[in-house]
């Protein structure tokens, strides 16, 4: 029998952040979508304090790929060992570890080791492909970690909610059928949906200006900072049995650097509550570049909060009307 082919890669970078900060970012996987550009959503399936299983969705080269990660966290050593099952990766499995070592005051050395068995020769899982993948992941981690002392100013999380006295199925249907939103949401001119797999949507949409201010996209994503027409793209992961739709903008406009969130349907004995949650990372460029001369970072936070909140409330009200109208007709 031919011997098993195993490819491996090892890369180290210096990061201008303390070791405990970098390790904390690696350990806190559910926050990756707002900190690391490729991640759309990370779901923690189980966690016993040291070992965990994650489901992760990434968006790269126009495609959504999902994988399962089994990880062992070693906080005292600032290490994370992992094994990732990824059907899209040649060979199917990538194993390895992250390790973080102090490198003087406020600096760290971060090393990523990866290896994959049974990879066909000449594929992306070969030595060059693994090395490029490791280099890209380290670069994205370094960019996020080196903002560590400014994250309190740059991160913004909030939610909007509404009560609905109608079937959850109708609310979910309205939120899922984003291709119909141009007919009901005045700030959306057009939208198109690519759904390569059931429940995994890549939505391209055009938005128009609004008198109240800059328009927004299907899940609250902003249009041009001047309120004019703009195009954008959102990845959506739909979980009908859980009553959830997770979303992430792939290239949000300034002053936003990253924007992810989800729609949640929470039924109870009297009806249901529909929640739209947002997680935003603001850019570090001067606020005036996006909002006009004299704008401060606090103005960027307020403008983003008001704009996304307003558009979310509008969508929630229409979802409520969509669900409650059939109920009123039957009474």
What does this structure look like?
This protein has helices at 19-27, 32-35, 127-145, 151-154, 168-176, 288-291, 297-330, and strands at 6-15, 39-47, 51-60, 63-74, 79-85, 93-102, 108-117, 155-164, 188-197, 200-207, 230-239, 244-249, 256-268, 271-282. It is globular. It is α+β, with helices and mostly antiparallel strands and 331 residues long. The chain is built from seven helices and 14 strands. The strands form two sheets. A seven-stranded antiparallel beta sheet has the order 1-7-6-5-4-3-2. It has a seven-stranded antiparallel beta sheet with strand order 8-14-13-12-11-10-9. β12 (244-249) and β13 form a beta hairpin. The N and C termini lie far apart (73 Å). Residues 209-216 and 222-229 have low confidence and may be disordered. It folds into two domains: 6-146, Alpha-D-Glucose-1,6-Bisphosphate, Chain A, domain 4; 152-330, START domain (Alpha-D-Glucose-1,6-Bisphosphate, Chain A, domain 4, 2-Layer Sandwich), CATH 3.30.530.
Care to give the gist of this entry?
The chain is built from 7 helices and 14 strands.
């Amino acid at each position: 029998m031919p011997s098993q082919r195993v490819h491996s890669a090892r890369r180290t970078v210096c990061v201008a952040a303390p070791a405990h900060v970098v390790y904390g970012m690696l350990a806190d996987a559910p926050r990756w979508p707002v900190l690391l550009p490729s991640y759309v959503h990370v779901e923690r399936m189980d966690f016993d304090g040291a070992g965990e299983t994650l489901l992760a969705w990434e968006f790269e080269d126009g495609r959504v790929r999902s994988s399962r990660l089994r990880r062992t966290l070693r906080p005292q050593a600032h290490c994370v060992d992992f094994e990732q099952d990824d059907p899209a990766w040649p060979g199917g499995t990538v194993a390895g570890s992250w390790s973080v070592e102090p490198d003087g005051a406020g600096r760290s050395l971060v090393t990523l080791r990866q290896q994959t068995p049974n990879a066909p020769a000449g594929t992306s899982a070969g030595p060059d492909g693994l090395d490029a993948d490791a280099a890209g992941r380290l670069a994205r981690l370094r960019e996020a970690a080196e903002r560590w002392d400014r994250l309190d100013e740059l991160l913004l999380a909030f939610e909007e909610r509404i009560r609905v006295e109608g079937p959850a199925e109708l609310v979910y249907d309205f939120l899922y059928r984003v291709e119909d939103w141009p007919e009901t949401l005045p700030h959306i001119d057009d939208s198109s949906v690519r759904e390569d797999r059931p429940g995994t949507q890549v939505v391209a949409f055009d938005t128009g200006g609004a008198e109240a201010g800059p328009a927004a996209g299907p899940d609250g994503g902003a249009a041009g900072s001047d309120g004019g027409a703009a195009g954008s793209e959102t990845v959506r992961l739909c979980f009908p049995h859980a009553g959830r739709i997770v979303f992430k903008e792939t290239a949000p406009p300034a002053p936003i650097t990253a924007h992810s969130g989800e729609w949640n349907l929470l039924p109870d004995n009297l009806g249901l509550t529909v929640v739209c949650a947002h997680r935003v990372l603001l850019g570090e460029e001067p606020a005036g570049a996006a909002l006009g001369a004299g704008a401060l970072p606090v103005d960027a936070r307020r403008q983003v909060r008001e704009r996304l909140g307003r558009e979310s409330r509008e969508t929630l009200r229409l979802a409520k009307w969509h669900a409650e109208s059939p109920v009123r007709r039957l009474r």
